[in-house]
Amino acid sequence: MSLHSTPILYLNMGGEMLYVLRQRLKAQKIDIDKTIQVLDDVTIALLNPKILSSIFEASPMIEIPQLRSTLESVALSSIMKLDKSSMDKLFDLMIMMVKYQLTAATGPREVILIILNHIDAMRDMVSDVNAQKCVSMVHQMIINFYGCLTFDEIWNARQSCLNELESYNVRVSILLRRSLQNDDASFNITPQKYNEKYTEHRNILASMRIKDVSPETCCGGSFDAFGDRKTLLGKNIYLPTYGITESTRRDSQQLLRDCGVKAELGMLAVQLGTEETNYERPFTLNLLSNMDEEIVNKAIDAEENNAKQNNSENEKPKLNEDYRAKLDTVYADFFDDENEGLKRSMDLLDLLDEIE
């Protein structure tokens, strides 16, 4: 059994706990001040130096019941209260998400990057100064602890974690909806952009220390405090932006701009599509002499009376059929996309942590 497995389980499960708590607090519309307090309190408790000093000892892995007891104490360290049923569901979510992430990991560097993704999210969540200091401290502890290990030592630590989690098989709706889990609770590992292919290069890298190998040799992924981790594993899967890369985000923003243009064109189509327009002058500018004014006014009045009579006979303006078709297309393109996005967002809030 590996002597370096405990931090992997503790920090990853703690990060997943914060993801769930944050989403539940938002979904239940808890006051923003209380939400901030809960996230700060739980993060400070999770990264308590006294707990971390024992977690980062090179010793046999902590057993799951003991780990659960510690994490339950962390979850209850704030003003929030959880009953046993909620705690069971929370623990199942934490276990299965971490099990999926470690199963999908493609190499030892990615195992560390998964932890760092959780740490990055903690840094973004908290506002308390002490909590921020705790996040910076644990980041350095991770680098110091795992940077001196060989690729194989970290890979063996991952395997020890998976062995410990082997008996836990719970279906989680968010994994099922994303096609990352099958009905029998097994995982469906889909290819990702980040792929170390460690099994192919194990004979070369196994005995080398992580810190001695260039990141580019293993698909990149920075260990720096604010570096680009490259991998999606370990990020907050409950966020609507999960899985959206920077290029995809730019494409989405362009799509929104395009939708705005479509909406404006649709309004223009309505205006251009009328064969007969009920048009009234907002004002009349008289550039003639006073002697001709009465004649001009009579002509204007006669013209307006004729226009009103024609409009009364045709109360509904006839739309050009070509413009009507274009308008219908624009309307469908714009509003169908918007409604579909809203529907997905609502589903995420309603179903994110259901255990099936």
Automatic annotation (TrEMBL):
Region of interest (Disordered), residue spans: 302-321
GO annotation, cellular component aspect: cytoplasm; plasma membrane
Highest taxon, organism lineage: Eukaryota
Pfam families in UniProt: Oscp1
InterPro entries: OSCP1
Official protein name in the record: Protein OSCP1
Organism: Cardiocondyla obscurior
